[in-house]
Write a structure and sequence with these properties.
- By secondary structure, the chain is an all-alpha fold.
- The protein has a domain of 241 residues: Sodium/glucose cotransporter (Up-down Bundle).
- The protein contains 15 helices and two strands.
- The longest helix is centred in the first third of the chain and has 47 residues.
Length: 450
Amino acid sequence: MSCGWHAHSSAWCYLKKGLNIEQPVDCERALLWCGCRLRLGGRRRDGEGGTMSVILDLSYVYSIIISSVVAMIYTLLGGLYSVAYTDVIQLILIFVSLWVCVPFLMTNPHSLDISLTAYNQTFQTPWVGTVELDEAGKWFDDFMLLALGGLAYQAFYQRILSASSYTQAQVTCFASSAFCLVLGIPSILVGAVAASTDWNSTDYGLPTPYERDQAGSILPIALQYLTPPYISIIGIGAVAAAVMSSMDSALLSSASLFSSNIYKNILRKQASDREMQWVIRISVVVVGMAGTALTFLDSSVLVFWLVGVDMSYTIMFPQLVCVLFFKMSNGYGASVGFLMGIILRFLSGEPLIGLPPAIHYPGYRLNKEGNLTQYFPFRTAIMLMSLLSILLFSWLASIIFNKGLLSEKWDMFKIKRKEKPTARAADSKKTNSANEEASAAKPLLDTTTC
């Protein structure tokens, strides 16, 4: 929610005009996100324990199932209302719990002052690193991925379009972006304390979590071994709240996408409101079960998260930009850009899922761990190529059909411009526009019930 300008009237145009070619991708991303959040709430295999199993010693299966069932039940019962109100409670829990744990971590007897270990070798390497010039491309690619990848996530617009006014939506975006920075501070401090700790003096022992490849679980490990037991329990509240907050959003957004864009628009256009409510309920259960099943397929939460945001950045983000800011964009360009993004992304490879690259970009070489890595910002390059493809083929399709080079019967997306409207039609259009503006004061998207 880092960009408030998405909340103005163009967001409403996105909902009305949206190129539905991207919606199946968002459903898949929601499934990956469910799996990602559930795995955070449960336990990662290969020794990388999540919060529940590290601190409470719960079974992996039980942790996953409990998290999934709880999220599905209150999403089913309350729809967007339950998601919104529980998000408020969860946000408070995250903020309070993390900041309560920080003083205990900073003052524990096993760790040195983090200001001393920032640039000096002590028990471990300094926790402040450096960016080498030959790695700048990869860092830039990761930065753009994190900054822009989430902007095409449907749950974001579900919140924005449910606001009572454009002003409220804008304020929500700007406030949340600032609040995200505040919430990120405890995470940095936890990592700094862990890098400043003599783990040999704790019950955890040596080697360090980083050497055991457990860096992804450093929060629960630090809470368990560096804080009193009652503080560890408070820390669970922060992580559990984050897990539930993300999963319920993914459940509701994917269910809404399927029910509105596929079931209502394609399968059963005459479906009643009552029928749509049951479709959403069933979709929530199906998506929840599918996300739960995904957690048993891979050992790393990073895989689910990165693949999800990667799909959003390289495939969905270019279409979002075109829909919002380029009136010439149409379904033909969106289809080509969609295929271009998927093909290039698969050909570029992904080591997290064991997919070897077929395209070797400049700077492709071994990293410090001995693994072949793409140091060129290839994700950003794919995103830009997909964006240009949408614009180019939208323009070409517009010329082909508007110039009569192809018969109108071949125009699947109906992009051919119609004759100029008569005076009566123009007045009717103005009236409809006025009605749309008047409706802006009402909630922009109704997903309040399931």
